[in-house]
Design a protein that fits this description.
With 303 residues, the chain is of the alpha/beta class. It has a single domain (41-300), classed as Alpha/Beta hydrolase fold, catalytic domain (Rossmann fold), CATH 3.40.50. The protein has helices spanning 87-96, 124-130, 160-178, 193-204, 221-224, 226-231, 261-269, 289-299; strands at 5-8, 48-53, 62-67, 79-85, 110-116, 181-191, 211-215, 241-248, 274-281. It is globular, with a radius of gyration of 18 Å. The termini are far apart. Belongs to the esterase D family. Keywords: Hydrolase, Signal. It is an enzyme of class 3 (hydrolase). This is Ferri-bacillibactin esterase BesA.
């Protein structure tokens, strides 16, 4: 079967929609926040290659934006590879930011942003479906950021396993055939619904990635369904996985609640062969956590 992939030659196309308002939960209609100065990391748009993949079932096309280190010899095993959800917003932040790295330091990883081929920073309908786990009532999920039992706030979801299959069967082969990457050193990063997706994969298919980053994960979604997965995680094979939860100030003061970042990390740390950690960003709200957390994640690959 022919692979339906378009390679977009012009880097300028990457910037389409950068001035458009965000129409999704992470940023609402506000301009996208800047990365914290002490973490700032960017990549030139001219160094980014972009591919467009058709969905196998006629859904929205996926935009896959890839940056690879432009100079230097790759490691013998290949570069670590970081798959970042909400790729349109991720690469908007990276293209707008000038790195504040020490002299001689470089980002030593292949960065893959997975978004949608449209002019929006966030495709609300598509990400609501793709990033949320299959669960009872997912077509009319309960919950909102302030009330896990709210009705009618969240859009239909439940497509996370379908999206994971597209990621593993279509997007990873596309990237890993074309770039020198270490398939044994994959990271999955997501914010908000993307953070929920990262937790879902870590708990249901832990072997899919070596490291998971869940930034401001939407634990509230569908009556906090992810907490059921947390209570019954899939077995984690050797050598284990690392899960990093990142949270802003909006999550503070609730560490005794089962849906708090602190409680989630404690539960994850109790799973055999899972190394879980929490990184808190004081003073940052939910939307601000996207640029802050993606910069913090990439900083871990600066050498």
């Amino acid at each position: 079967m022919a692979e339906h992939v378009r390679f977009v030659l012009t880097a300028a196309a990457l910037l389409i929609g950068m001035s458009a308002p965000a129409q999704a939960q992470p940023g609402h209609t506000r301009p996208m926040a800047a990365q914290p100065p002490e973490l700032a990391i960017g990549v030139p748009a001219a160094q980014v290659q972009r591919y467009v993949l058709a969905a196998p079932d006629g859904g929205p096309e996926y935009r896959v934006s890839v940056w690879a280190p432009p100079e230097g010899q790759p490691p013998a095993a290949g570069y670590p590879v970081i798959y970042m959800l909400d790729g349109n917003a991720v690469f908007e932040s990276l293209a707008r930011t000038t790195s504040a790295l020490p002299p001689g330091a470089r980002l030593q990883a292949v960065v893959v942003g997975i978004g949608y081929e449209d002019a929006e920073r966030f495709n609300v309908t598509a990400r609501s479906y793709d990033y949320t786990p299959p669960s009872p009532g997912a077509d009319a999920p309960r919950g909102s950021p302030r009330d896990p039992d709210a009705r009618g706030w969240a859009k239909p979801g439940g497509g996370a396993d379908r999206f994971l299959a597209i990621l593993q069967q279509r997007i990873q082969p596309l990237v890993e055939r074309r770039y020198r990457v270490d398939a044994g050193n994959r990271t999955l990063y997501g914010h908000s619904y993307g953070g929920l997706f990262a937790l879902h994969v870590a708990l249901s298919r832990p072997q899919a990635f070596k490291h998971y980053v869940a930034a401001s994960p939407s634990i509230w979604w569908n009556g906090q369904f992810i907490l059921q997965s947390l209570a019954h995680p899939a077995a984690v094979p050797e050598p284990g996985v690392e899960v990093t939860v990142m949270a802003g100030e909006e999550a503070q003061g609730r560490d005794d609640q089962p849906d708090s970042p602190e409680s989630v990390v404690r539960a994850l740390d109790g799973v055999p062969r899972v190394r879980a950690s929490l990184r808190v960003f004081p003073g940052l709200g939910h939307g601000e956590m996207l640029p802050a957390s993606l910069a913090a994640t990439l900083r871990g690959y600066v050498r």
